[in-house]
Amino acid sequence: MVAIELDGVTKRFDDVTAVSDLSLTVEEGEVFGFLGPNGAGKSTTINLLLDFVRPTAGRVSVLGHDAREESVAVRERTGVLPEGFDVYDRLTGRAHVEFAIDSKDADADPDAVLERVGLADAADRQAGGYSKGMRQRLALAMALVGDPDLLILDEPSSGLDPAGAKEMREIVLAEAERGTTVFFSSHILEQVEAVCDRVGILREGELVAVDSIEGLREASDADATLRVAVGSPVGDDVLDAVRDLDGVRHVERDGDDAVRVGCDSDAKTRVVSAIEERGVTVTDFTTEEASLEDLFLAYTEGDADVAAPVSDDADTTGADATDAGSDDADAADADSDDADAADADDDAETDDADSTPAEGEVRR
Amino acid sequence: MSWQAVARKEFRDAIRSRWLHGSTLFFALFLGGAAALFFGVLLGPESRQVSNLFGFFASLGVFSFSFPGLLALVLGFVALSTSYGSITEERESGSVKLLLSLPNSRLDVVVGKFLGRSAVVVAALLVGFLATFVVLVATGTRLEILRFSKQIVLTWLLGTAFVSVGLCISALADSNREATLATMGLYLVFAVLWGSISEGIPKLLNYAAEQVGMSVAELTRVKIGVFLKYLNPLKTYETLAAQAYYPVAQARLVSTTFGEQAVLAPVLQGNPPFYFSGWFLFVVLLAWIVLPAAVGYWAFERADL
C-alpha cells in the first residue's frame, strides 16, 4: 500500500516556483525523512499533502485519497504537526486536545494524550502562556489523537531542547513501531538519520535524491576511507591482495608507513586482516568518513560528484545514532575509530542509539 | 461534519475574550439603562409600555431617529467587530494550520465560525435583553410580550447578519489589516452613506434618461430610492421592528424623508407592492445572513493558506 504519492507536482506562487515537477512515493509503514535547506519547498510539499495549498500541476494522493477532493478523509487518518502554526491563546491545553478529539470524532482521554507528550501538568493553563516547545508538544498531542495511520511532522523538533527533541524522536519511533507511516521534514540531518528508513533531499523545489542514508552515502561515493598505519613499507603484492578484496575500490600508499584504502564500511576488518596476514604489522588504523552533513551539503549546494569530502575522525559522523527500527541502516556501523579491529566488527547501530550525547550537532 | 467541533471551539475561545465581556456589559448597560431611564424616570406610569422605547420612532423629515435604529447601529458594530478577524487572525497567527490539519473541511470552518461567533453576539445581546426584562418588571411596564419577542428575534437575526458580513470580509481579506480597513469602510457605508447612495441612484437614472429625451416618473424614482434604502440590513431591521408595533404603511415610512412620505404614503395604503411587504424584507434580512457567509465560503474554499 502506498501512503503518499506525488506525481509530477508543481506549485507556483505568483512569481516563485516552490515545488517543481516533484514525484515521490512513500510506502505504508515507512519512516520517511524529508530533507532540505530552508526554503527548499519542504513545507510547501507538506501543505500540498494537507490541501493547505493546491498544486499548479500534478496529482497528490494520500492514503489512497485525492489530497484535494478528499482532504477530509485524508485528515481523518492523519496526524499533523504543522510548521509555523500557533495555538489558541485563550484555550487551555486540554481544550485544544478536546477540540482535536471532537474534530476527529475520536474516543480518547485528553489527559492521557497530554501525559504522553509531557504536558499533563500544564493541561489547565491557557496555551497562550506556553513556551515554543510546549506549543510544539501540544500540537503533537493533537496530532496523536485517534491513533493516526499517517503522521506528518513539519520540522518537529524546532523549538525543542535536546531532551524534548529526544522525546519527540521516541514518540515518532513508537508510532512507527505501531505501523504508522511517518513523513517528516527537517533541515537538521541527525534527526532524520536517527529515525528514518529513507530520506528524500529537496533542493530549490526539486527532489535531488531519494534513498536510504547508506544508499545516499554510496551513491555519492562518500563512504569510508581507511588509513592503516604500518610498521614497515608494504610491497605491491600486499596492495594487490587488498585491492582484490570485496568492497574495496582503491588502494594507495600514504608515505612509507601507511596505506589508504577506499572501501565499504563492512570491508574494513577484512582489509586489516589481509594486511596482517601478509606479515605487515598494523600499528594503528583510522576511518575517515564523509559526515552526513557533508553529504547533505553536497546534495543541496553543489553536485553530488564533488561530495566525498572526508572528516578527520570517523566518530564525528554521529552514525551510531542510526535508527533501530530501520532496515537499511545496518551498514551504518561506522562508529569504530581507533584501532581495535574487533571493534570494527561490532554492529553498533542499535542499542546505544539513544545515548548519543547531543542532538543535531555535527562536530567537524 | 465537524462544524459542531469548530463552533464549540470558537465559542469557548470567544467566551474568554475581553471583547465579549465588554460587549455583554455594554448591551446590559445600554438596553437595561435605556429601559431604566425611560420607564423609571422619564415616562409616567400610564405610558410605561415597551413600545414607547423599543418602538420609538421619530421622523424629522431629512433626519430620522429611532431606538431600534440606534440599537441596530450599535449591534452592527459589535457583530462586525466580533467576526471580521475570525479567519484573518487565524491565518496570521498560524492557528488555522491546527484548525485545518484536523479533519475539518473548509465548509465546517465557515459554518462553525459563523455559528460560534453568532452565539457570542447573541449571548451578549440576550444578556442585554435580560437586563431590560428585569427593569421592565421592576418598573411595572406593560410588556407587550408578543411584539417585544418579535423584535428580539429580529435583533438576533440582525446580529447574525453582521457576523456573516464580517466573516465574509475575513475570508476575502489577505491580512488582518485589510480586513480591519474593509470593515471600517463597510460600516461607514451601512451607517452613513447608504441613504445618500440610494437617493442618488434614481436621480442618476433620471439624469441618464433625460439625456435621451425621456424621464423617470417621480413615483418610480421614489420607489426605487426607498426600495434601495431598505436593502441596507440596518434599515431592513428598523422597518421590520417598526412593523412589530405599527401597521405596515406606517412601518415602511420610518426612514424616509418628508418628500418620499408624501409620494409613497398613498401607495402603501391598502395593498402595498410586494417589494415593500414585510415578508419580502424579512427575506432580505435572511439573505444578509446567508449570502455573505456563502461568498466567504466560496473565497476561503479557493484560497491557499
Write the layout of secondary structure elements.
The complex is a heterodimer of chains A (364) and B (305).
Chain A: E1 2-13, E2 16-27, E3 31-35, H1 42-49, E4 57-62, E5 65-66, H2 71-76, E6 78-81, H3 93-104, H4 110-116, H5 132-144, E7 150-154, H6 162-177, E8 181-186, H7 189-195, E9 198-203, E10 206-211, H8 213-219, E11 225-230, H9 236-243, E12 248-253, E13 258-263, H10 268-277, E14 282-288, H11 292-300, H12 341-345
Helix pairs in contact in A: 3-4, 3-5
Chain B: H1 3-15, H2 18-42, E1 57-59, E2 64-66, H3 67-83, H4 88-93, H5 95-101, H6 106-138, H7 145-172, H8 176-211, H9 218-231, H10 233-245, H11 248-251, H12 258-268, H13 278-302
Antiparallel strand pairs in B: 1-2
Task: Characterize the structure shown.
The complex is a heterodimer of chains A (364) and B (305). Chain A is an alpha/beta fold and 364 residues long. Chain A has 2 domains: 2-217, Rossmann fold, CATH 3.40.50; 220-355, 2-Layer Sandwich (Alpha-Beta Plaits). Chain A has 12 helices and 14 strands. Chain A has helices spanning 42-49, 71-76, 93-104, 110-116, 132-144, 162-177, 189-195, 213-219, 236-243, 268-277, 292-300, 341-345; strands spanning 2-13, 16-27, 31-35, 57-62, 65-66, 78-81, 150-154, 181-186, 198-203, 206-211, 225-230, 248-253, 258-263, 282-288. A 6-stranded mixed beta sheet of chain A has the order 6-7-8-3-9-10, with helices on both faces. In chain A, a hairpin with a 4-residue loop joins strand 12 and strand 13 (258-263). In chain A, helix 3 (93-104) packs across helix 4 (110-116). Mean pLDDT of chain A is 78; it is low at 303-364. By secondary structure, chain B is mostly helical. Chain B has one domain (3-302). Chain B has helices at 3-15, 18-42, 67-83, 88-93, 95-101, 106-138, 145-172, 176-211, 218-231, 233-245, 248-251, 258-268, 278-302; strands at 57-59, 64-66. In chain B, a hairpin with a 4-residue loop joins strand 1 (57-59) and strand 2 (64-66). The longest helix of chain B is centred in the middle third of the chain and has 36 residues, at 176-211. Chain B starts with a helix and ends with a helix. The relative contact order of chain B is 0.14. The mean pLDDT of chain B is 91. The A-B interface holds A 13, 47, 50-54, 71-73, 75-76, 78, 80, 82-88, 90-91, 95-96, 99-100, 102-105, 126, 139, 142-143, 152 and B 2, 4-6, 8-9, 12-13, 16-17, 93-95, 97-98, 100-105, 304-305.
